[in-house]
Inverse folding.
């Protein structure tokens, strides 16, 4: 059965000819892709092999960095954008994707995701910087494939918001179908989740009867815990610095200095202090946002992004001055007390004050249509088309520290690209094809058959005792 | 004679009391003649003799003289192979029966009894299984019926589980009977009280509540142990002027682990588990043996460089139902018999995939009884694993992974006399029937329970005496 499905998928893939050259002509029936799962056999997901040279032609290109190009060509060499513009010649030997009448955007980056995780919140303590989302991430969440179908090429997979200082994030590229380790985006700097407000206080989520309240239970306590944690981290950092100094000065014959005890909880916080780990902080109210910015300033680090930040419009100037990004919902409000003052103009108002704004999903379902949420910024707040597009591409890349490598259609960047049937902000738009590093990971024409293969895979996983999420 | 028979009589008495159906457990000096001997390491002897003395194999070969004091057992038409070794067992471990299966994730919380759940933290690096294991005669007999002569006993749950023991399948085995202890420190992804199994929002005051929390805890413990090792080394070298290292039995148990002297058996059934374990191994430069690996075929790259104890406890596709199954589906999927068969092919082909990848592996039961173990190994063979490799994987390779390659796992002079005697080919052959096993040179005849498979109750005399030319021991 599964073998048949894979064979069928292979046949369809062989038949791909969006342009001139079949993308996966060498993809034989049931054959595992060159760098796909070893030994996965019939149940490997038939990802077409990467082409060395690809040209997307006759496209309307929304670059997200330098305006719109009509009848444009994108040349992709070894997974990177080699040329972009109208009148760019198509190199000989390139696989051609004819995008006449289609709209091409940078791949969408979801700045806030919890997709495909085996456990999201380590709730046993309010400081869990020692846990890593990487250890909970599963490669087989079907949602990842569905997000590819919505043009998503990268995501900031975050720990939940149960803790003042949550776990370490994982920035992934949606290389769905390859082993889980190859989905990690190596160029992304590490990050960490913080959270403020009701979720941390557990006011909407009280402990079960007989269980003690977890500290902190107030916003005052949250601030104290942050300051306490970073004070500890600073002392720990000093211990190691002193050790490194002593070690460098050590000579044979003297008693050898003994290293301090390694603390896997404080290590990531030292990286935050040193600016090598980005902070993504769940926040709602203006007062707590200001509090966090003050704490960060006092300890000399930067908050890379405020997540949700529903009252961000009240303190947009302060957020912009802190060089902090804001990642918000398009139009969600009043679903809990701290979301009472949320307004749909929030993204636009913050952007007007110079904040780098993104619109995120925080949801497997919404992640598939982030382009519609970005369009709402235009609808509600008269944000420009390019600014709205940045809210799901370039600004997200900036917040994740990967804007040098992806997030816009510029020469030298990774060829992370979505091809739409209509303007992405039009209600008619659908994603036809999604490329990650120049490789086609989603193609609408093969999708139904692939889906069937995936369901078989899912079935196998369940049969083997796995398959949750 | 007396010296030989005194312990023997005790065994006989014990067996006779608990399991009257057994015809006897007989030690001493044996000569097994006219047998087809599958030595595993030195080929097959079509018609050979094995001499057993003092619990060890004294001689093996086609032309081996029979010692004068030996009791001769004519095994014409029968096959002798090394006794099987199961590296995933909870046999003789109090309270283990209610816990999660080894090498597989429990369907729900993996809690043991309610009484023990409160005490159980999931971090018991200093737990010594040899101190608590006690194999009941019934458990031992059930193991021998499948040809299993030794089992590696370790707790089935917990994040750091303790030090395992290799136990012979003798009646009431425990304590001084243990073949080797400790064999390995055992790790896994299930923490205390079943937490860590991967709930979305694992609750409460238990640390850790998630898999990522378990990993963090393990990493911290291992880093602590590394430092502990360093402090102890410095202090032992010259204690003057140094604060003495804190006494910590858990860290003491982990010191050999971080120094690379004690293998870690890491319970990692699914692909993600395997990759997680491999990541920790890489970070801390340990010696992980991956245990379970029922999805090893999906993670061959991550398994590379690790010995693998492959569980053959295959889940049955048709029996996996209920909430989590439906949730996983989310949408209708193909659950036809054909899809089941396709899934089964992959599941049962796991060992062959691991073999083909050139990895070092043993096969283990994954917590089932011995009869199911053997029948599952046959399925792995049917799915493509060469039969001779399968036999190695349940004997010599398993012995090697337990660090006992020189003492167990093959029919060679000098090795422990753990053997399995079968009709109808070697123990893994499709129609094989286990007739007797030798554990530490003691003969145990296998007589299936009434109504059970095979057996000799269909008119023929009991196998125990059918071919034994010596029948001097009185059995009740």
């Amino acid at each position: 059965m599964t073998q048949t499905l894979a064979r069928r998928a292979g046949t369809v893939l062989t038949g791909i000819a969006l342009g001139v050259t079949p993308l996966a002509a060498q993809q034989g029936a049931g054959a595992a892709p060159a760098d796909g799962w070893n030994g996965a056999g019939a149940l490997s997901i038939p990802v077409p092999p990467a082409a060395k040279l690809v040209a997307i032609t006759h496209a309307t290109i929304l670059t997200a960095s330098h305006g719109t190009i009509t009848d444009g060509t994108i040349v992709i060499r070894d997974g990177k954008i080699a040329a972009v513009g109208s009148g760019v010649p198509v190199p000989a030997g390139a696989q051609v994707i004819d995008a006449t009448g289609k709209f091409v955007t940078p791949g969408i980056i979801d700045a806030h995701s919890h997709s495909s995780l085996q456990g999201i919140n380590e709730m046993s303590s309010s400081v869990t910087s020692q846990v890593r989302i990487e250890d909970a991430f599963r490669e087989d969440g079907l949602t990842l494939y569905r997000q590819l179908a919505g043009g998503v090429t990268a995501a900031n997979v975050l720990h939940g918001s149960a803790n003042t200082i949550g776990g370490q994030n994982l920035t992934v590229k949606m290389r769905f179908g390859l082993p889980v380790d190859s989905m990690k985006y190596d160029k992304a700097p590490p990050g960490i989740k913080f959270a403020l407000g009701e979720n941390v206080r557990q006011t909407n989520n009280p402990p079960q009867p007989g269980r003690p309240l977890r500290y902190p239970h107030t916003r005052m306590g949250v601030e104290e815990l942050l300051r306490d944690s970073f004070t500890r981290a600073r002392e720990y950092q000093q211990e190691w610095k002193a050790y490194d100094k002593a070690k460098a000065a050590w000579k044979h014959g003297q008693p050898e200095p003994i290293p301090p005890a390694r603390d896997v909880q404080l290590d990531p916080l030292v990286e935050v202090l040193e600016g090598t780990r980005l902070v993504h902080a769940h926040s709602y109210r203006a007062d707590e946002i200001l509090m966090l910015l003050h704490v960060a300033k006092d300890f000399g680090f930067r908050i890379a992004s405020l997540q949700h930040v529903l009252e961000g419009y009240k303190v947009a100037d302060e957020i912009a001055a802190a060089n902090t990004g804001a990642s918000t919902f398009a139009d969600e409000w009043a679903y809990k007390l701290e979301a009472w003052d949320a307004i749909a103009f929030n993204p636009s108002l913050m952007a007007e004050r110079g904040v780098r704004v993104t619109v995120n999903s925080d949801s497997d379902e919404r992640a598939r249509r982030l382009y519609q949420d970005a369009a709402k910024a235009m609808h509600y707040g008269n944000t420009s088309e390019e600014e709205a597009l940045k809210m799901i591409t370039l600004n997200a890349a900036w917040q994740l520290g990967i804007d040098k490598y992806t997030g816009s259609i510029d020469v030298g960047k990774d060829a992370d690209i979505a091809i739409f049937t209509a303007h992405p902000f039009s209600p008619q738009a659908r994603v036809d094809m999604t490329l990650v590093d120049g490789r086609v990971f989603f193609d609408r024409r093969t999708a139904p058959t692939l889906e069937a293969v995936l369901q078989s895979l899912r079935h196998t996983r369940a049969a083997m005792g796995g398959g949750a999420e | 004679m007396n010296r030989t028979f005194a312990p023997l009589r005790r065994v006989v008495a014990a067996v006779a009391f608990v399991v009257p159906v057994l015809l006897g457990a007989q030690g001493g000096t044996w000569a097994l003649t006219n047998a087809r001997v599958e030595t595993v390491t030195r080929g097959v002897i079509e018609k050979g003799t094995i001499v057993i003395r003092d619990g060890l194999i004294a001689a093996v070969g086609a032309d081996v003289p029979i010692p004068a004091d030996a009791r001769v057992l004519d095994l014409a038409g029968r096959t002798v192979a090394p006794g099987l070794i199961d590296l995933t067992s909870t046999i003789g471990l109090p309270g283990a029966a209610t816990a999660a299966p080894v090498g597989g994730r429990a369907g729900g919380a993996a809690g043991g009894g309610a009484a023990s759940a409160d005490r159980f933290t999931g971090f018991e690096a200093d737990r010594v299984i040899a101190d608590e294991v006690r194999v009941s005669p019934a458990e031992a007999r059930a193991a021998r019926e499948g040809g299993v002569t030794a089992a590696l006993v370790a707790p089935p749950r917990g994040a750091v589980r303790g030090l395992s023991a290799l136990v012979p399948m003798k009646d009431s085995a425990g304590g001084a009977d243990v073949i080797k202890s400790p064999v390995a420190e055992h790790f896994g992804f299930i923490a205390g009280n079943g937490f860590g199994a991967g709930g979305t929002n694992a609750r409460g005051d238990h640390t850790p509540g998630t898999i990522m929390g378990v990993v963090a805890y393990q990493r911290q413990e291992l880093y602590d142990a590394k430092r502990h090792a360093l402090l102890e080394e410095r202090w032992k070298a010259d204690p003057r002027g140094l604060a003495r290292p804190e006494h910590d039995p858990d860290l003491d148990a982990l010191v050999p682990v971080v120094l690379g002297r004690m293998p870690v058996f890491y319970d990692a059934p699914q692909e993600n588990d395997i990759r997680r374990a491999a990541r920790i191994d890489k970070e801390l430069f340990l010696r992980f043996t991956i245990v379970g690996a029922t999805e090893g075929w999906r993670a061959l790259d991550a398994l590379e460089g690790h010995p693998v104890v492959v569980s053959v406890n295959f889940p049955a596709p048709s029996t996996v139902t209920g909430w989590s199954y439906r949730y996983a589906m989310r949408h209708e999927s193909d659950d036809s018999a054909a899809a089941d068969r396709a899934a089964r092919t992959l599941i049962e082909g796991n060992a062959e995939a691991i073999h083909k990848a050139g990895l070092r592996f043993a096969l283990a039961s994954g917590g089932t009884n011995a009869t199911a173990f053997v029948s599952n190994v046959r399925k792995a063979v049917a799915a493509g694993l060469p039969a001779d490799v399968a036999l190695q994987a349940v004997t010599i390779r398993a012995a090697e992974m337990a660090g006992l390659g020189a003492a167990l796992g093959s029919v060679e002079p000098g090795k422990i006399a753990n053997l399995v005697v079968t009709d109808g080919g070697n123990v893994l052959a499709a129609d094989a029937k286990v007739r007797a096993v030798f554990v530490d040179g003691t003969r145990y005849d296998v007589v299936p329970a009434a109504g059970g498979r095979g057996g000799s109750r269909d008119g023929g005399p009991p196998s125990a005496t059918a071919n034994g030319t010596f029948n001097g021991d009185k059995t009740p």
Notes: Residues 297 and 350 of chain B are 5 Å apart (CA to CA). Chain B has two domains: 2-82+410-466, 85-401. Chain B touches chain A through 73 residues (CB under 8 Å). The radius of gyration of chain B is 23 Å.
